[in-house]
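Holo prediction. Input below; ligand is LLP.
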Amino acid sequence: MDNFNYKKRELHVDKVAIREIASSVGTPFYVYSQRAIEKKYQSFSKAFSKLNCSISYAMKANSNQAILKILGNLGSGMDVVSGGEYLRAKAAGIPSDRIVFSGVGKTNEEIHLAISGGVRQFNVESEPELIEISRVASNLNVTVPLTIRVNPDIDAKTHSKISTGKSQNKFGIPIINAREIYAFAASLSSVKIVGIDVHIGSQILDLEPYRAAFLKIHKLAMDLRLDGHEISRIDLGGGLGIDYGLNDTKIPSHLEYGALVTEIFKDLGCEIELEPGRWIVGNSGLLISSVIYLKKGEGRDFLIVDAAMNDLIRPALYEAHHEIIPIAENIESSSSLYDVVGPVCETGDTFAVQREIIDMKKDDLLAFKSAGAYAAVMASEYNTRPLVPEVLVNGDKFLLIRARPTIQEMIDRDQVPDWL
Ligand code: LLP
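Structure of the complex:
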């Protein structure tokens, strides 16, 4: 996270001191570095420079319109998985021919929305969805480009909740049925097959499952071409893992990943589509929090902070590790083992167990690292806690890109029936 550095013993995002943002917006908040996002996008795209390649950022990772705009300005498309994401991408000015519509349960309304507003392609996940898309397209008198997402039955060797490429997962159509479904798709009016889609999971740290899946997709592409289908695009999904700071974890580089994709697919002459999410934004953001209390427990100390599981659910949901660092770099300070917890009334509201951290006291500021992806977007208002604001840093300036709602605004959203 090289845009996040200590200067004069204070953690900065680029040239802005986090303490300065904290005094302006209060804690907790998320902070993102525009430069980090730009650099990530550019280096990712460079890794595929030997291929005809397009990137559709998986906006589920972080869908703030400011982030979408940063990436859109660099030429990125968007991978969307709901009508809401589709409209958000459009609101951020992403041209519709750069929007890929993925997702396992697209509703009739969502299909209608995307066809009327324009879409680069649908990544279709089932036969009934294929029929629905064809029906809507035919009613609107247009022909819609699509790929079919294939489930290659490969174990991505990641957390079970974010593994998507095994036959027992709900995603895609089984690869063994692929030729049959492509033949069926070709028989439908109003849809046009343009390629194949695959996505085997997220936070993937081993390139071998990718290799195994991609070899299967390469073979399928050849077979489908022999069957007479146009296979001009291959969408390889996202999933490349990032460094969450756990010792002993070897992180594959995007260059190795790019080399693998290039080696396997270069002979096909297809456009290769990629849908990275976490890799672009994960290590481009922090969640900043402050200490409410230091509580002495029986045999352990609890650092109770003002961020909670509703602001960063990854530790509770996936046993995920996020590094925790102080905002004030106090190199002389001692360190101790703490359980770092939030104020929510669940034992699951625990960010770290017996983690060695620099000693902190009430009101000290701290940062959860790697919070640019799957943090703000997965937040909830559990315990009537307002959604945490988002701040974007660009060099020496910062701006609130989503404000903290007031508690009153949250309360006012309820409708109490007049019979009560
Ligand atoms: N394409 C498709 C079809 C996807 O389902 C996903 C992620 C991506 C691309 C982007 O994957 P990425 O490059 O970000 O790994 N909430 C979980 C991650 C869920 C990922 C869901 N799909 C987490 O916090 O780890």
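Residues 58, 60-61, 79, 102, 162, 199, 202-203, 237-240, 275-279, 314, 318, 374 surround LLP (CB under 6 Å). That is the main takeaway for now.
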